[in-house]
UniProtKB/TrEMBL annotation:
The keyword Signal applies. Zn(2+) binds at residues 126, 131, 208, 213. Transmembrane segments: none annotated. PANTHER family: MPS ONE BINDER KINASE ACTIVATOR-LIKE MOB. One of its GO terms (biological process) is hippo signaling. Residues 1-21 form the signal peptide. The keyword Signal applies. It holds the Pfam family Mob1_phocein. This is MOB kinase activator 1B. GO terms for molecular function: kinase binding; protein serine/threonine kinase activator activity. GO terms for cellular component: cytoplasm; nucleus. Keywords: Metal-binding, Signal, Zinc.
Length: 263
């Protein structure tokens, strides 16, 4: 996929300046790039990291871009603006007159990009040795199957599982028959069930990060960002009933904690 694109749009960074904290990951490289401004060099390093060569590049996926000027882009901007208002319950609601499929599509792409980035910050800690199986605490273990190419679930390490998962999600998002980006092209009849499967699987990455890698998240000062991203995700799936309650069980306590204040 288009590796010449910056995986992070500039607008996204301006909206979420806290993400600049990610540069903590590459301090030595950062300092070698005197003369370039911070944002530019950060993006260059990100690009290097995502375009092959480094060990982490397998798990980093290029950002899925929503083209500027499109209606979906307007929706994304709307979502970001209402998020800024601080009322997450309101922010996740379907904006008046909008199509539910399109709203779910735009937000699903955004969650994929956020999770990709959050997991990207801790890939160095999620290895074959640290995580020989994909788990979310001692009670939950996941085996990978996508239902089409891999029918019989494979038991594999967390980094492999998450690579399968993110690659699979990316393939769905890039499929124009599932996620049409052109005006007037309708969403398929099964769109909502595809979106539900995507969100169900993306949830597992949050669950793995919270259960197995919360310490580095704190050290990288990404904790507030992770909480906000996850809370937004949960409010969104609750609003439209997109993930079964039992799928959310690995983080049930956290979900109750994060959402109780807003009830
Ligand atoms: C993130 O959420 C956890 C669980 O609710 C909480 O213990 C922690 O204080 C939160 N951190 C921040 C920075 O909001
Ligand atoms: Zn791990």
């Amino acid at each position: 996929m288009c590796s010449q694109n910056f995986p992070l749009g500039l607008s996204y960074l301006l909206v979420k300046p806290s993400l600049l904290a990610l540069e903590i990951d590459w301090p030595s490289k950062m300092s070698k790039r005197a003369g370039e401004n911070k944002l530019e060099s950060w993006m260059l390093i990100w690009k290097e990291k995502t375009s092959g060569g480094s060990r982490s590049s397998k798990t980093f996926k290029p950002k899925k871009n929503i083209p500027e000027g499109s209606h979906q882009y307007e929706l994304l901007k709307h979502a970001e603006a209402t998020l800024g208002s601080g009322n997450l319950r309101m922010a996740v609601m379907l904006p008046e007159g909008e199509d539910l499929n399109e709203w779910v599509a735009v937000n699903t792409v955004d969650f994929f990009n956020q999770i990709n980035m959050l997991y990207g910050t801790i890939t160095d800690f999620c290895t074959e040795e640290s995580c020989p199986v994909m788990s979310a605490g001692p009670k939950y273990e996941y085996h990978w199957a996508d239902g089409t190419n891999i029918k019989k679930p494979i038991k594999c390490s967390a980094p492999k599982y998450i690579d399968y998962l993110m690659t699979w999600v990316q393939d769905q998002l890039d499929d124009e028959t599932l996620f049409p980006s052109k005006i007037g092209v309708p969403f398929p009849k099964n769109f909502m069930s595809v979106a539900k499967t995507i969100l169900k699987r993306l949830f597992r990455v949050y669950a793995h990060i919270y259960h197995q890698h919360f310490d580095p998240v704190i050290q990288l000062q990404e904790e507030a960002h992770l909480n906000t991203s996850f809370k937004h995700f949960i409010f969104f799936v609750q609003e439209f009933n997109l993930i079964d309650r039992r799928e959310l069980a690995p983080l049930q306590e956290l979900i109750e904690k994060l959402t109780s204040k807003d009830r």
